[in-house]
Amino acid sequence: MVMTMPAPPTAPTRLQPVWTMALCLVSVLSTVGCAGYQIGPHAMYRSDIRTVYVPVARNDTFRHDLGVRLTEAVNREIEQRTPYKVTGDPTADSTLTVRFLTETKRVLTETSGDDPRALDAVVSVQATWLDRSGQVLMQNQLLPDNSLAFTFSQSGRLVPEAGQSVETELQDAIDDLATRIVSNMEMRW
Question: In Gene Ontology terms, what is a biological process of this protein (predicted)?
């Protein structure tokens, strides 16, 4: 039976204090130099806003359910992608108002019997994001100074012969609109 003895503790080398000092110096400089910066995905959003009130989108089209569907999609996007909390309280930190302007279908190609072969479903909405004092929170260099609303349009192509329906294509367009609206809630650099 062979017995092994534990190795004696090693004496500190001359480089250990130097490495310790360098590590401390780097950590101090990184926190001091970046004191005003935020990191992570939530750094793209305003820190002075915590809650967002999203009333049901007003619908100026003949399809009665578009406003509700868009409101649900916008609420879902805000909750998933932003640090904001959607609330039903009109006295929230901010209010995001959305209004459906148009919903149209354009025929791209037809069969010889004048049946639509390919269509574009196009929807457009206006969105306004204001804080409690009425100040515009969405920022864009292309928005005229006196305008409070952004206009978003989204289209989707469908082929009825392939089994695609207008309703599913409209839902895809609504989901894309919600993503674009919430993306514009990010702070600009």
Answer: Gram-negative-bacterium-type cell outer membrane assembly
Tens of pLDDT along 154-180?
A: 888 778 777 778 888 888 889 999 999
User: What CA–CA distance (Å, rounded) separates 151 from 124?
Assistant: 7
Residue 36 burial (10 A CB sphere; 0-12, 13-18, 19+): exposed
Task: Give the C-alpha separation, 177 to 123, whole Å.
Answer: 9
Domain extents in the chain? 50-183
Cβ atoms of residues 100 and 68 within 8 Å: no
CATH 3.30.160.150 fits 50-183, yes or no: yes
Q: How far apart are CA 136 and CA 49, in angstroms?
A: 13
In three-state form (DSSP H/G/I as H, E/B as E, the rest C), the secondary structure along 122-177 is EEEEEEEEEECCCCECCCCCCCCCCCCCEEEEEEEEECHHHCCCHHHHHHHHHHHH
Listed residue (13, 7, 82) closest to 52, CA to CA: 82
**Cβ count within 10 A of residue 159:** 14
**One-letter amino acid of 67:** G
Bridge partners (DSSP) listed for residue 127: 98, 150
